[in-house]
Design brief:
By secondary structure, the chain is an alpha/beta fold. Helix content is about 60%, strand content about 10%. Strands 3-4-2-5-1-6-7-8 form an eight-stranded mixed β-sheet, sandwiched between helices. α2 runs parallel beside α5, α3 crosses α8 and α9 packs antiparallel against α19. It starts with 6 loop residues before the first helix and ends in a 9-residue tail after the last helix.
């Protein structure tokens, strides 16, 4: 049994499978829409777990301060006020910053490898070299040291609410998860936007020390906006409101120093709490995962449920096929011929020792024309064997039933619509091969069951040997029926040897045995033969045929499947329920 996945390994796996699905499915498909809704929380959790691993490996990891906010909130200006210098580029145009940008304050190793490891898949550039036509980059720059700040990295981030934010949202979330202190910057026009509160709800379980900047306020609106902010916070968040600093429009350069001092004064408390909060990183990351676990696993569980439904559909269809076979063949007095085959075998066993060889030679001579006639025609096959005809009809019914059920599922299971469509497509392509396979398997079963028929005849014969009087009566009836059958066969030129030779003999034998003391034993042998036959046909349906039908689902493109078993979900869920007293989760 493979070792359980760590939380980080599982989130990486789930994220990769989601990306594969999104790359191949239409954006408007039900599962693609569902994955888009949960993508942000999964990206944040992945980054939070990676930060946790980073803390374990990097004991001297610098303090991380992330400035986040919607468009035109003034994030880059706030970064400059924190650093007390013009470091981040500012513009009146919306969406000016499209990459995470790190300003390294009082750090000896600005090219620390942990940055590249955490931002794996991103290219590190100097801030001045960041391109405008790609988003898989982040910028770094060393800045002048200020006595107002400890050694730290201050991150400026892109917006999260513009039309193109989806293209670089991953970088925003990764930076937000890295933060030891979060500074949310909102303007009077943006503070009530749903996107702002969606982000605040998303990061709530991480319980990061936070500072809120209500920027670009008019003094006359300050109290009203502060009250409104507090009310909204109480509605959305369960924890206490963080410190809020209000910043007005600054039209004169001399006012900027006041804004910077105000920020540093308010930022002091979150900074003091920041490094202590790292000790609870594992606990808070688990809280984040537990909150979003049902939404993350809903599409995975839907796939598992669809796969289980497919198995149940197959079981139901083949179960009905078996029931049709039982009803139309085994329990049908006119259709069931297997026991008659056993009685025909018994006829051979009842040959009178002295007459056996002469009767056999005479039989061969008289029936030669019939044998010659039938030697030029195909031997008896499924085309005229009653049992195989009924078996074929029952399986054809099952295969058609499955096709109809698949067609219904493609219109009723919205979330897994794509999966059912693919299974239906592969099933239709496989149907001719399934029919051919069953023809071969059924013929093989029929031949393989012959020893059971012979065993039933032997069982009757051995019982008859314990009843000499009955045995002698049956042998006399056997000889009479054989002679009458041979005479009729001779007169008719060999037409219908089964009807004219075996049928009279078997009918005569059956009547005598049923009326004798052997009657109840014969019924028992017949019932045992039916039970054995039913089990053999059940194996015929449930073994290779069932496997071949079930394997149709395995032909669905792996790239549009999660392929995460229930056992893995249970293992990860158990880890989430464990109490964590330290950082070790890997």
């Amino acid at each position: 049994m493979p070792s359980p996945l760590s939380l980080l390994d599982f989130v990486h796996l789930l994220h990769q499978r989601q990306q594969d699905l999104l790359a191949r499915l239409p954006e408007t498909s039900p599962v693609a829409l569902e994955l888009q809704r949960i993508g942000s929380s999964l990206s944040l959790a992945r980054a939070a777990l990676e930060k946790q691993a980073l803390i374990e490996r990097q004991a001297d990891l610098p303090l991380q301060i992330a400035v986040v906010g919607p468009t035109q909130a003034g994030k880059s200006s706030v970064v400059n006020w924190i650093l007390k210098q013009e470091a981040a580029g500012v513009s009146p145009l919306a969406g000016y910053t499209i990459h995470p940008q790190a300003f390294l304050h009082d750090l000896q190793d600005p090219a620390a490898p942990w940055v590249d490891e955490y931002f794996k898949g991103y290219r590190r550039l100097d801030i001045t070299d960041l391109p405008k036509d790609r988003y898989d980059c982040f910028g770094t720059r060393r800045v002048e040291t200020s006595s107002a700040l400890p050694s730290c990295i201050v991150w400026d981030t892109p917006d999260f609410d513009s039309l193109r934010a989806r293209q670089y949202l991953e970088g925003v979330l990764r930076t937000a998860a890295l933060a030891d202190v979060s500074i949310l910057v909102v303007s009077k026009d943006k503070y009530a936007d749903q996107s702002v509160w969606d982000l605040l709800t998303l990061i709530e379980p991480l319980a990061q020390p936070t500072l809120v900047c209500l920027n670009k306020l008019r003094p006359s609106n300050r109290e009203t906006l502060l009250k409104s902010w507090q009310e909204k916070w109480d509605q959305v968040r369960q924890d206490g409101s963080p410190p809020v600093v209000t910043l007005a429009y600054y039209e004169h350069l001399e006012d900027l120093q006041g804004a910077s001092d105000k920020l540093h004064e308010t930022l002091a408390s979150p900074l003091r709490r920041a490094l202590k909060a790292r000790r609870r990183q594992g606990q808070r990351t688990r809280a984040l995962m537990r909150r979003h676990w049902p939404a993350w696993t809903r599409p995975v569980r839907a796939e598992l449920a669809a796969e289980q439904s497919w198995q149940e559909m197959i079981n139901g269809a083949l179960g009905q096929a078996l029931e049709i076979y039982r009803h139309d063949y085994l329990d049908h007095p006119l259709a069931y011929e297997t026991f008659q085959r056993a009685l025909a075998e018994l006829l051979t066993l009842l040959e009178i020792p002295g007459l056996a060889r002469p009767m056999m030679l005479f039989r061969k001579a008289v029936t030669w024309p019939v044998k010659a006639l039938f030697s030029r025609r195909p031997g008896r096959s499924g085309e005229n064997i009653q049992e195989l005809l009924i078996l074929r009809r029952s399986v054809e019914h099952a295969l058609l039933q499955l096709q109809a059920a698949l067609r219904e599922q493609t219109h009723s299971d919205g979330l897994m619509e794509h999966w059912w469509q693919e299974v239906s497509r592969h099933y239709q392509a496989a149907q001719p091969a399934l029919n051919t396979l069953f023809e071969e398997e059924a013929s093989a079963y029929y031949r393989a069951f012959q020893p059971q028929v012979e065993a039933a005849a032997q069982s009757l014969y051995q019982r008859l040997k314990e009843m000499p009087a009955t045995l002698n009566s049956l042998r006399a009836a056997r000889a009479t029926a054989d002679a009458a059958g041979l005479a009729l066969l001779f007169q008719t030129g060999g037409i219908g040897p089964h009807d004219f030779v075996l049928a009279p003999a078997v009918l005569s034998m059956t009547s005598l045995m049923a009326e004798s003391a052997l009657g109840k034993y014969m019924d028992r042998v017949s019932a045992d033969l039916k039970r054995t036959q039913l089990e053999a046909v059940k194996r015929l349906l449930q073994n290779r045929l069932r496997r071949e039908i079930a394997s149709v689902a395995e032909q669905v493109d792996p790239a549009i499947r999660f392929r995460i078993p229930e056992e893995t979900l249970a293992q990860v869920e158990a880890q989430l329920k464990e109490k964590s007293y330290g950082l070790k989760l890997f």
